[in-house]
Design brief:
The protein is mainly alpha-helical. 63% of the residues lie in helices and 1% in strands. It has one domain: Ribonucleotide Reductase, subunit A. The chain has a two-stranded antiparallel sheet with strand order 1-2. The radius of gyration is 19 Å and the shape is globular. It binds fe (ii) ion (2 copies).
Length: 301
Amino acid sequence: MTLNIMDTAKFSSVFSPSTVEQRTKNFADYWLFTQQHGGDLLESDRDLAKKKARLEYFQNNPVRLRKPLENPEVFYRNYVHLKDPVTELDRKTLLLCAIYKFARHELNGIEGAWDVVPDMAHSFSVEDKISRVHLAEEFCHVRLFNEMLVTCGLDKVEWVPLVPWQQFIYRQFPKFPGFLMDAPAFITELMGVIFYFHLYGVIDDVFSDEPEVRDRLKEMLDEITIDEIAHVGQRRNFIGELGIKFSQWMIQPLFALFFKDIPETALLFDVNKMIQEAKDFDYNNVPDFMLEKTWIPTYCQ
Ligand SMILES: [Fe+2]
Ligand SMILES: [Fe+2]
């Protein structure tokens, strides 16, 4: 993807200091933003009206591969658990397996949280309301990832739960007190944004022979990335001075642990570069069309 590198740095680090007053104002501002961004919360469907309409647009205007995947059975054999040597997979299969595995982690994380955080009727603080809508938005991302796989002809994908110990961690995580939960929650959002920015480049490369599908995949990814950039700021806004130091410290081990669980990523992505970009993240490389639609805390502007 072409990023707009601005002449002068416009934004400051996502780890910039903030006061309690600034964060309170930013939560109020994010709450206004998120309601107009996603539209009405459709809580029983874990969905949002505007996001639902956007997915339906993609589904009603399908784009498909000119040349179907040669061996879809290789994907189906390896997408939940890698069975073949990773070096034997072709690059399209590798990429689609990596996308599925990333989204599967996301899905398990939010399913664990959805049942634990208060529903909208029992959300009395602005933070609780934000968190409810945030989770609904994450379910929309998994639907978009599923649609990416369908676009590549993979319409028999099942969303399989993670192994029990991983499920246990994801279920316990939302019950942790804020001082333990906020930093990893922030860094996993940042990991999402950095991963998606790298994903654009890999899609360009791997689907260079399929321009319509390449563009459609990136169009769906845009929807997700714009949300995730807003989530980075929102989760950042939960964190004070000490938590920010903890967050910065956590980038390296958390990225390393997460991507180790998705062996495909080692062949497609430069994980060390992603780690460095997370440490340096300041919004200045976010393209203008995304900046117009997303949300950034005032103390990072
Ligand atoms: Fe997401
Ligand atoms: Fe997110």
